[in-house]
């Protein structure tokens, strides 16, 4: 097995190694002596840490977020000496799908923050109070205390996050108000002395609904999170285990040897294996009206894969797609004139799609990681993200959702639907 390949080694051993740049990665060709055979062989290794002979998780060919490419090379450096291993904490991940992957470590479980639920009846809190169709009240698996049934019909309680509360207070006075759950204030429960946000139950008017959660934006963590994680990176065995369960070839040889990856390395890898970095959104979970559910979308990244998922989600409900397109276009138009949207970096937020036999609707949900932009900073939500510019790619995701749903209409009715695929700010219409 090759040892770690440092830039200094590449330069100092020119007689034995050569390098070339291929697809944005440095490929090192190294001559190795084969013990017992008395001869040399050439071994190629990419400087992003992968062997050319393996099939590592590739970077997307076209990214709406070049910031990932900026981070890739530096994050593949394993801390040296690799003496310290870190442990999981409640604020590890902005994205929720990691909670689906079992944590093999025997450590005492900690509160899981704002992660989604382990199955679809649980992953959206609106199902928690969906009693009209006899859905039972189910405590969130691993999320006890984060959600409760609302004290009034048609409401839910979500554990108060100060950042999210500020967002809802702003949104109730903004033009986006019709597109988010109504905020009815906060409540402190006497039994637990815990404070909750009281929100509208978005499923209250639906009968046996189909529900889909799409995480919007080209990244689901704040730049500050990644910068903080890079300050003193430690190897994480739990994140290594999660990585190899999804793609055994994703870790480098050194990471396999040490059975650990750093948190920032994992965070960037996680975003680039889905459609987040390329299309500005990803599917988090889908629940059908027959009760079947799935969150197996971690590596769903191509347009074709997403189109098939949307087709399956809306099958048997021909009215749903046109209504989704109409609602998404209304959301986009409202975002472009919204004071809230102009002044905030929207990270980790989702669009919740809901339909039944008669109705279909879409709402913006989840604002725990949405922050007010500094006074001197402006973003347009449609530019590519590079490190430091704080672009979230929200409009990239919305436009691509409109485009893919429009393509779905075209494929089922043979009608021509204009496309609005967005990968750069000048494409935002």
TrEMBL record:
What organism is the protein native to?
Answer: Clastoptera arizonana (Arizona spittle bug)
Xref: PANTHER family? INOSITOL POLYPHOSPHATE KINASE (PTHR12400), KINASE (PTHR12400:SF97)
* A UniProt-annotated Pfam family: IPK
Listed under GO biological process in this entry are:
inositol phosphate biosynthetic process; phosphatidylinositol phosphate biosynthetic process
The entry lists its GO molecular-function terms as: ATP binding; inositol hexakisphosphate kinase activity
**Entries under Gene3D superfamilies matching the protein:** Inositol polyphosphate kinase (3.30.470.160)
Instruction: Kindly state which keywords UniProt assigns to this record, in alphabetical order.
Output: ATP-binding, Kinase, Nucleotide-binding, Transferase
Q: Which InterPro entries match?
A: IPK, IPK_sf
What Enzyme Commission number does this protein have? Answer: 2.7.-.-
Has the keyword Ligase been applied to this entry? Answer: no
Q: Please name the top-level EC class of this enzyme.
A: transferase
Name any GO cellular component annotation: nucleus
Q: Where is the composition biased (Acidic residues)?
A: 89-101
Region entry Disordered: which residue ranges? Answer: 1-23, 43-66, 85-111
Q: Taxonomic classification, please?
A: Eukaryota, Metazoa, Ecdysozoa, Arthropoda, Hexapoda
Q: Where are the transmembrane segments?
A: none
Under which name does UniProt file this protein?
Kinase
């Amino acid at each position: 097995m090759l040892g770690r390949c440092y830039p200094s080694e590449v330069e100092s051993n020119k007689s034995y190694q050569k390098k070339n740049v291929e697809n944005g990665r440095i490929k090192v060709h190294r001559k190795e002596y084969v013990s017992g055979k008395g001869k040399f062989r050439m071994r190629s290794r990419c400087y992003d840490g992968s062997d050319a002979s393996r099939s590592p998780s590739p970077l997307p060919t076209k990214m709406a977020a070049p910031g990932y490419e900026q981070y890739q090379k530096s994050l593949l450096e394993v801390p040296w000496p690799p003496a310290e291993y870190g442990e999981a904490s409640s604020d590890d991940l902005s994205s929720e799908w990691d909670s689906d992957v079992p944590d093999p470590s025997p450590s005492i479980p900690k509160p899981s923050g704002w992660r989604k639920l382990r199955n679809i009846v649980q992953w959206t809190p609106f199902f928690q109070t969906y009693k009209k169709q006899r859905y039972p009240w189910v405590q969130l698996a691993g999320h006890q205390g984060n959600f409760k049934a609302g004290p009034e019909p048609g409401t839910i309680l979500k554990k108060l996050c100060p950042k999210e509360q500020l967002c809802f207070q702003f949104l109730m006075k903004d033009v986006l108000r019709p597109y988010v759950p109504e905020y009815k204030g906060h409540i402190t429960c006497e039994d637990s002395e815990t404070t909750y946000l009281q929100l509208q139950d978005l499923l209250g008017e639906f009968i046996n609904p189909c529900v889909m959660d799409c995480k919007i934006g080209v990244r689901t963590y704040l730049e500050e999170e990644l910068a903080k994680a890079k300050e003193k990176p430690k190897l994480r065995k739990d994140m290594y285990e999660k990585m190899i369960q999804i793609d055994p070839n994703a870790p480098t040889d050194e990471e396999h040897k040490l059975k650990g990856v750093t948190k920032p390395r994992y965070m960037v890898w996680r975003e680039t294996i889905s459609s987040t970095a390329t299309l500005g959104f990803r599917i988090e979970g889908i629940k059908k009206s027959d009760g079947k559910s799935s969150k197996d979308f971690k590596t769903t990244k191509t347009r074709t894969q997403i189109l098939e998922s949307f087709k399956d989600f809306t099958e048997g409900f021909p009215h749903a797609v046109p209504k989704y397109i109409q609602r998404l276009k209304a959301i986009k138009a409202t975002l472009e004139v919204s004071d809230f949207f102009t002044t905030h970096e929207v990270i980790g937020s989702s669009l919740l799609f809901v339909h039944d036999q008669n109705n279909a609707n879409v709402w913006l949900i989840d604002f725990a990681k949405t922050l007010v932009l500094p006074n001197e900073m402006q973003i347009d939500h449609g530019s590519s993200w590079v490190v430091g510019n704080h672009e979230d790619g929200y409009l990239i995701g919305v436009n691509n959702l409109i485009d893919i749903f429009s393509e779905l209409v075209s494929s089922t009715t043979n009608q021509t639907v204009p496309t609005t695929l967005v990968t750069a700010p000048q494409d935002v219409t």
